[in-house]
Specification:
3-stranded antiparallel beta sheet, 10 strands, 5 helices, alpha+beta, Glutaredoxin, globular, 7-stranded mixed beta sheet
């Protein structure tokens, strides 16, 4: 019986997600984030996601292209839609830049969204299987009615390092697009 209790405690500690020092607000209510907090200057951890084409994609790590990771709560909300459309348009004019829109939405929702809105210059990817991205990058909402989905955050990764991070303080607000584009 003691061995069983130790095994259960070990599993619980493996699956536990520590709170970061970061928080955002949802309609003015403070919400703590969970996972590992990634900062500018950190090495960008590699994480596997599932694309809307049901293919495994890897973000983070050292690549030849600049990566822009646009993390959103759900592709089906107005601000997330604005982000995807804006970055899809801008991506068509960028060289050596890969843009990923990451959410907990199922890949089928991503595929439907891309088809309905002509999204073809960016990759829409899902973190639904293991929440590995959210845990690794510290972007998961750790409490409240939307607990377990992603906050609104943008990371820019160049040569394997995080060179820019924008944690949008209020989930219902759009990011500062100009600051992101300037940082790219």
């Amino acid at each position: 019986m003691r061995l069983f209790a130790v095994a259960v405690m070990t599993l619980l500690s493996i699956n536990a997600i520590a709170a970061t020092s970061q928080s955002v607000t949802l309609s003015g209510t403070k919400v703590k984030l969970t996972g590992n907090e990634i900062r500018v200057g950190d090495t960008a951890p590699m994480v596997k996601l599932i694309s809307s084409e049901l293919k495994e994609v890897t973000v983070g790590g050292k690549t030849a292209k600049t990566q822009v990771l646009v993390v959103v709560p759900s592709i089906d909300t107005p601000i997330c839609d604005l982000e995807a459309r804006t970055f899809n348009e801008k991506a068509s004019k960028m060289k050596d830049v890969e843009i990923f829109v990451i959410s907990m939405d199922l890949p089928f929702a991503g595929k439907r969204y891309c088809a309905a809105h002509g999204i073809n210059n960016i990759t829409v990817a899902s973190d639904f299987q293991t929440k590995a991205f959210g845990k690794t990058y510290g972007t998961l909402l750790g409490e409240g009615v939307l607990q377990g989905i992603e906050a609104r955050v943008i990371f820019i990764i160049k040569k394997g390092k995080v060179t820019y991070k924008q944690l949008v303080p209020e989930i219902k607000q759009a990011p500062d697009f100009e600051a992101v584009l300037k940082a790219i």
